[in-house]
Design brief:
The chain is an alpha+beta fold. It has 3 domains: about 10-95, Phosphorylase Kinase, domain 1, CATH 3.30.200; about 105-275, Transferase(Phosphotransferase) domain 1 (Transferase(Phosphotransferase), domain 1, Orthogonal Bundle); about 375 and about 390-535, 3-Layer(aba) Sandwich (Protein Transport Mog1p, Chain A). It has 12 helices and 23 strands. It has helices at about 55-70, 105-110, 115-135, 190, 200-215, 225-230, 245-250, 265-275, 305-320, 445-455, 455-460, 520-535, and strands spanning about 10, 15-25, 25-35, 40-45, 80-90, 90-95, 150, 155-160, 175, 180, 375, 385, 390, 395-400, 405-410, 415-420, 420-425, 430-440, 465-475, 475-485, 495-505, 505-515, 535. The strands form 6 sheets. It has a 7-stranded antiparallel β-sheet, sandwiched between helices. A hairpin with a 2-residue loop joins β21 (about 495-505) and β22 (about 505-515).
Length: about 525
């Protein structure tokens, strides 16, 4: 590998690695030269878990590439630019713009906390970045000062590390495909396993602003269990330095995600303070994470003592052998965090045949066909069993489907076969997971997806924003199709679909998921677990 400061090697025939800029659980970041375009770049050499078997290592590799490609689609002045995703020696590398300047964590360590005006400036920049990412269906999931860069010459604030790599370290919990985040900056709904969404990133931003103003997170404790308990239960004490923008910070640190301040409102208030120096008027509904509800207030979400148990189990799991603490954060309904992917040919996103359009409480009410064999695994975390076959993560069950495959589906999903397709449907059919097995077709997966996309307007009402991307699945050529459409009725509303197609052992496999556009992230998580655990029988 060489030493720091040496020309180490050239990857992908064009990127010459020079000085090592940083090293952590996610891998090594190098200053490099793009010799084709003659520009300086940053190259992240992704660390892969060498303890994984070949199958799981390939899944991790493919997941890394999928996430990097998702981030590469984002375009915002405060989001790191991903120039390229390459492979060398079967190891993935992410090529990014080079930011001359350290992280916000480095700045705080060297210069101390920032003043409220600077915190407001940083907050506005990051809120803009998050709004752009969330609009594209991408969650960051690990917002903290170490993942915010500040350009030395301009002061430009740049959000980086959108879960492209596995994050590891003393205060970071990860499980492939389920949970990424640093506990001191992780929202309580994720800690308790209730759900994850854009609101969770906003909580993390609130904690980050506290750190920027005071030098440490309000949830800093002496032990991991103490951190988790502080996030879920303890009174939240904002630092005195936060007084000028306290309304925003308390709004972002509202424990109930349904009552948490929105990105747009937080940005409005921070801009007002930054531009005028005066504390803006609070929003009509007070965002206070520790106050008791007043009579007439909407019911408040509560977090049960399960959170305390989660904290204790996490501490034990971190010390135990082979048990992922992060898996324990996933609830019994499969709402834990995850990573993106996509797929679906020939209008696979269409409603299961024989069902009625949505009405009132949701689509079709036909009874499911209970012909699937379900095997519950004793493992709380997904992974591989002793025979090398995938097991279901916590909150999922492993379905041994009579159609000739097995995969993990969320608890509560029911099976419904429809001709050559098999569906697994959530209650009310909010989420629809589909599988199709067929003979190979001309042009391979990319040809199949391309033809399906061309017929998109005919098979999916209001079809739009469709794109087909060549990718791989377990080292095999694959194609990913993603699109938005109008659903089957006005009551159902707009939906988004992810669809992956690949060939294996002389058969073509197609796995897809669709969901309302407001639940894109959960859909991607369900889809990623399905794809990563799919095994032909």
């Amino acid at each position: 590998m060489g030493t720091e400061g040496d020309d180490v090697r050239v990857i992908a025939g064009r990127y010459r690695l020079h000085t090592r800029l940083g090293r952590g659980g996610m891998g090594i970041v190098w200053r490099a030269t793009d010799e084709l375009l003659g520009r300086e770049v940053a190259v992240k050499e992704i660390a892969l878990d060498e303890q994984l078997d070949a199958t799981e290592a390939r899944r991790q590799h493919d997941r890394t590439l999928r996430e990097a490609r998702a981030v590469a689609q984002l375009s915002h002045p405060h989001i790191i630019v991903v120039h390229d995703v390459v492979e060398c020696g079967e190891r993935p590398y992410i090529v990014m713009e080079l930011i001359d300047g350290g992280s916000l964590a480095d700045r705080i360590a060297r210069q101390g906390p920032v003043d409220p005006a600077e915190a407001a400036r940083i907050g506005v920049a990051l809120l803009g970045a998050l709004r752009a990412a969330h609009a594209a269906g991408v969650l960051h999931r690990d917002i903290k000062p170490a993942n915010v860069l500040v350009e030395s010459a301009t002061g430009r604030v740049v959000l980086t590390d959108f879960g492209i790599a596995q994050v590891a370290g003393a205060t970071t919990l990860t499980e492939t495909g389920s949970f990424v985040g640093s506990p001191e900056y992780t929202a309580p709904e994720r800690m308790s396993g209730a759900r994850t969404g854009p609101e969770s990133d906003l909580w993390s931003l609130g904690a980050l602003l506290c750190t920027a103003l005071s030098g440490e997170s309000p949830f800093r404790r002496d032990s991991l269990g103490g951190v988790l308990h502080a996030v879920v239960f303890d009174d939240i004490r904002t630092p005195p330095q936060a007084a000028p923008i306290e309304a925003v910070i308390r709004g972002l640190l509202e424990r109930d995600p349904d009552r948490r301040m929105s990105a747009a409102e937080a940005e409005r208030l921070l801009r007002a303070y930054r531009d005028t120096g005066r504390t803006p008027a609070p929003p009509p509904v007070p965002y206070t994470p520790t106050r008791l509800d007043n009579p007439g207030d909407p019911p408040r979400r509560t977090y049960s003592t399960r959170g305390v148990l989660v904290s204790a189990l996490l501490v034990a799991a971190m010390a135990g052998a082979g048990v992922s603490g992060a898996a324990l954060l996933m609830n019994e309904h499969g709402d834990g965090g995850g990573t993106p992917t996509s797929s679906s040919p020939h209008g696979r996103d269409s409603r299961p045949a024989g069902t009625s359009p949505p009405a009132g409480q949701g689509p079709g009410t036909h009874a499911p066909t209970p012909t699937v064999t379900v095997t519950r695994t004793p493992s709380a975390a997904g992974g591989a069993s002793s025979d090398g076959r995938p097991t279901a993560p916590s909150g999922y069950r492993l379905a041994q489907d009579p159609a000739g495959f097995s995969l993990a589906v969320p608890d509560g999903f029911t099976r419904r076969p429809e001709g050559e397709r098999v569906f697994y449907l959530s209650p009310g059919e909010t989420f629809r997971l589909g599988i199709r097995i067929a003979a190979p077709e001309p042009g391979g997966p990319l040809g199949v997806m391309g033809r399906a996309a061309a017929k998109g307007p005919d098979t999916n009402p209001g079809y739009r924003d469709g794109r087909v991307t060549a990718t791989t699945h377990d080292g095999r050529p694959a194609a990913l199709w993603e699109f938005t459409w109008d659903g089957f009725s006005a009551a159902e509303g707009a939906r988004h679909t992810y669809d992956l197609c690949w060939e294996e052992n002389g058969r073509m496999y197609d796995v897809w998921v669709s969901a309302p556009v407001g639940k894109v992230r959960e859909a991607r998580e369900f889809f990623d677990v399905a794809v990563d655990t799919f095994v032909p029988v």
